[in-house]
Amino acid sequence: MELVITDNAAEAGALAGRIMADHVRRGARAIGLATGSSPLGAYRELIRQYREEGLSFAGVRAFLLDEYIGLPPGHPQSYRQFIRDEFTSHVDFADADVHSPDGNAADIPAAAADYERAITENGPISVQILGIGANGHIGFNEPGSSLRSRTRVKTLTPQTREDNARFFGGDLAQVPTHVLTQGLGTISDAGHLLMIATGAGKAEAVAAAVEGPVSAFCPASILQMHPHATVIVDPDAAADL
Ligand code: GLP
Fold first, then answer.
1. Separation CA 72–CA 235 (nearest Å)
2. Is residue 99 part of a domain?
3. CATH of the domain at 191
């Protein structure tokens, strides 16, 4: 595992963006995207390179890590909508090439299996950007997730719902209870795992992921088992290392 401590959060995002851009320039067929606030700096860098340096996503497929179950299509906090608003609609990604689990499917387990199949058929994913939850989750693989899990339904922990309530106007009742998420096994199939964490609120989770035991109770610790993992943190998120 490669650990990079940058001078500040802005540089962490820019570095993650440059690494993703390198994968795209080298001909990545598919890249893995994440939602939450952590990857936004990386997406800003990719948008900048698209506008100023001719970076193109034409022909690249994107796969999201996860999706809430039951949010109406077009809801601004559905991850499908979020990734379009924050990233893919600002560059030359074809909308049909941006994939996410279908949280509105009539048959949710079938939607999970369909998503796994789509990743397998269009993969391998060259680079997967990841944030980390304060409890060590990646995607929505909450503590206790099987280290070899595939895309499936998960129930969010009370902490994760509280953490994410800020995206729903602070109203906990609006935060869905269930999600579809790539499993830890699915995520590990990507060629390069690129985790970004900034701010003191992530320090404990980062230390557990990087220096703690590999354990289902810190799902991000699977990065220690991956042949190519990069963790980019700012000084605040590195404080407990
Ligand atoms: C969310 C997402 C994760 C994200 C994490 C941290 O619930 N499902 O993919 O990495 O929690 O979010 P943030 O980056 O906003 O702190």
1. 38
2. yes
3. 3.40.50.1360
ipTM over 0.90: yes
Q: Find out whether the beta carbon of 65 lies less than 6 Å from any atom of ligand 1.
A: yes
* Ligand 1 center to 90 CA (angstroms): 21
Residue among 68, 63, 69, 152 nearest 113 (CA): 152
Residue 238 lies in a domain: no
**At 106, is the pLDDT very low, low, confident or very high (cuts 50, 70, 90)?**
very high
Site to substitute for ligand 1 among 132, 187, 223, most atoms within 8 A of C-beta: 132
Q: Which atom of ligand 1 is nearest to the CA of 36?
A: 15
Q: Return the pLDDT at 74.
A: 87
**In the predicted model, is pLDDT for residue 73 greater than 90?**
no
CA distances from 40 to 121, 218, 221, 222 (A): 28, 23, 23, 23
How much is the average pLDDT of 74-80?
Answer: 93
* Catalytic residue positions, numbered: 66, 135, 137, 142
Check whether 41 has a pLDDT greater than 90: yes
Alpha carbon nearest to ligand 1 atom 5, residue = 133
